[in-house]
Automatic annotation (TrEMBL):
VOC domain: residues covered: 12-163
Pfam families: Glyoxalase
Organism: Rhodococcus gannanensis
SUPFAM superfamilies: Glyoxalase/Bleomycin resistance protein/Dihydroxybiphenyl dioxygenase
Cited CDD domains: VOC
Protein name (record): VOC family protein
Coiled-coil zones: none
Length: 188
């Protein structure tokens, strides 16, 4: 899974910045429920808000803005309304659809059970494959990732995922779609 970038030496995600409604509740979820250490906090100038960083492993961080003037959440626009197993996947162009955290395959089922025990609503396990439905009930040689989804207190869609096999050249086989092919709902 280590493809080489010939142009830049990128070392992963430094941080992904999201927006929350309540920083205290966000700390309780990300540090308390998910165990991510809070590693940096900032007050923004002129009373704009705060910017806090959580370590999500391997030197990567998930950051949150609490902004005094943020509009309310817009499920179905800025993020999916719910979880993929509930038929919810759509979000607007330019939005952040979900964050997938890499977890060890041998801990996958344990982590799902621990979240359920903590009162977090989790999706069924999805064994992603190349079948017409995109998922299978069981892991098989065509399964490339196992995952389950859940949401944080602000409705941000999160995923715990583990790769199940190495990718090959055969895994890049689809013609990219264009903006002209989108099915954009008409305004009524």
């Amino acid at each position: 899974m280590n493809a080489t970038n010939p142009k830049y030496e990128l070392r992963g995600i430094n941080h992904l910045a999201l927006v929350c409604a309540d920083m205290k509740r966000t700390i309780e979820f990300y540090s308390g429920t998910l165990g991510m250490p809070l590693v940096k906090t900032l007050d923004l100038p002129d009373g704009l808000g705060q910017h806090f960083f959580f370590d999500c492993g391997n030197g990567n961080t998930v950051a949150f803005f609490w902004l005094a003037d943020s509009p309310d959440a817009a499920p179905g626009i800025a993020a999916p309304k719910g979880r993929p197993d509930e038929g919810e996947l759509a979000s607007a162009v330019g939005s952040m659809n979900h964050v997938a955290f890499a977890v060890p395959p041998e801990k996958f089922d344990e982590y799902r059970a621990r979240l359920e025990e903590a009162g977090v609503a989790v999706s069924r396990v999805l064994n992603h494959d190349d079948s017409p439905s995109g998922v299978s009930r069981d892991v098989h040689p065509g399964t490339f990732v196992r995952s389950f989804y859940f949401q944080d207190p602000d409705g941000i869609l999160l995923e715990f995922a583990c790769w199940t096999r190495e990718f090959t050249e055969a895994d890049v086989a689809h013609e990219p779609r264009t903006a002209a092919e989108r099915r954009v709902p008409s305004a009524s």
